[in-house]
Amino acid sequence: MANRIFKETQSYAGTWVMYLIVLIELPTLLFLIVLYATSEDKQELAIALGVVLGTMALLLLFVLNLKLETRIDSESVAFRYAPFIRKWRKYPKEQIKSITVIKYSPIADYGGWGIKGNKTTKAYSVIGEDGLLMDVGEKKKIMIGTMKSKELSDFLQNWIEE
C-alpha cells in the first residue's frame, strides 16, 4: 500500500468550454470570409482576416493547453496548473491538517472555474463540482478540482490511515 499513487490530469479539451469557443469563432470566421469574398478592397480585409484568425487560433490553443495535474503519493499532495503554475506545488502529509473530497458550487463558492481565491482560500479547478479540500494550516485552505471524486475518496481513506 505504501507505493500507491493517485494521478489525475484535467483539461478543457472535449468540454463545453472548447465547443463554446469554436461555436463563437466559426460564425465570426465565416462572416469575415464572406466579407472578403464580396469586398472590393481585398488587401485591408485580408489583413483584418489574418489578425482575427490568428487571435482565434491563439485563444483556442491557450484554452487547450490549460491543464490541472494532481498527484498524491505516500508523502505529499502535489499539483500544478499549466501554464500558470509550472512547478509542482507540494504539501507534505505532515503539514495537512485535514483533507476531504467535497461537492461545491464553482460560481457561488469560488467565483467560477480556474484559479480563484484570496489570502486564506485558494481554488484550482477546470470543470465540474467536485474537489479536494485541504487545510494546510496558518488559516489556509486549498481546493483542487477533481473529476474522479469516488476514486479519490477511496484513495484518501487508505492514505490517511497510512
Describe this entry's structure for a reader:
The protein has 162 residues and is α+β, with helices and mostly antiparallel strands. It is built from 4 helices and 9 strands, in the order βααββββαββββα. It has helices at 16-38, 42-65, 106-110, 149-161, and strands spanning 6-11, 67-72, 76-82, 85-92, 98-103, 114-117, 121-125, 130-135, 141-146. The strands form 2 sheets. It has a 5-stranded mixed β-sheet, covered by helices on one side. The longest helix is centred in the N-terminal third of the chain and has 24 residues, at 42-65.
Keywords:
162 residues, five-stranded mixed β-sheet, four-stranded antiparallel β-sheet, 4 helices, 9 strands
Query: What portion of residues belong to β-strands?
Result: 25-35%
Mean pLDDT: 88
Span between N and C termini?
Answer: 8 Å
The strand line-up of the biggest sheet is 5-8-9-7-6
Indicate the low-confidence ranges by residue numbers.
none
Biggest sheet overview: 5 strands, mixed
How would you describe the shape? elongated
Radius of gyration: 21 Å
Return the structural class: alpha+beta
The H/E string reads EHHEEEEHEEEEH
How many DSSP helices?
Answer: 4
